[in-house]
Amino acid sequence: MIILVSKQVKGAFGVHFVAAELYRSGFIATPTTRSTEGIDILVSNTTGSKAVAIQVKTSSFTENGKPSFPIISYKESKDPKKAKMPLKERTEWIKRKINPSAQKFYILVYVPDEFFEKEMWDQVPDYYVVPSKEVLNGILKIREEYLGVNKASQITRISEKTGSLVKDEGVWYWPPPEKYLRKIELLRRVLQ
């Protein structure tokens, strides 16, 4: 029997699982409050002389049999400024949101729906440790491919709530390359 778990519970699980894995790997890991935009965990070496920011994304979504993670989202119907934002400005906005820095990583935790069943409690989820620059490059590539296919429509749709025309790119999902699976040593290199 699959236990239905909310998106918020999965997200909280992902953050605390990552913090535990980081401690287990010999780092100091401090989850931030939910109001800290773009940073879920601050991680340092044991002397505190070097630190990195971690953004955790937790997903049970797969695409073509591979885990895929919601990296960036537009909620344009709630923010009129974004509805008028030209595509080039959106690209700059994406870059600012992802923040491609040597001191920022994404840890993407894959938890299939059945993960929360009692029979799975002894399992450890797969996770990907990815430099933020790689995440940005992956999202920009997917977005470029998508926009190339749909340029004629300019990605417009009718709002279900207001009935008016809005631009909406929705949520951009990214499937991380397998080479980042459990690559905690990428953090070790930066924090030495």
Number of domains: 1
Count every beta strand, where a strand is a DSSP E run of 2 or more residues. 11
Helix and strand pattern: HEEEEEEHHEEHEEEH
Structural class: alpha+beta
The overall pLDDT, averaged over residues, is 84
CATH domain class: Alpha Beta
Distance N terminus to C terminus? 45 Å
Radius of gyration equals 18 Å
Task: Specify the biggest β-sheet.
Answer: 5 strands, mixed
Percentage of helical residues? 25-40%
Q: In the CATH scheme, what's the topology name? A: Trna Endonuclease, Chain: A, domain 1
Oligomeric nature of the chains: single chain
- Give the overall silhouette: globular
| Number of DSSP helical runs | 5
Uncertain segments are: 151-158
Q: Major sheet: order of its strands?
A: 1-2-3-7-8
- Tell me the CATH architecture: 3-Layer(aba) Sandwich
- Beta-strand proportion: 25-35%
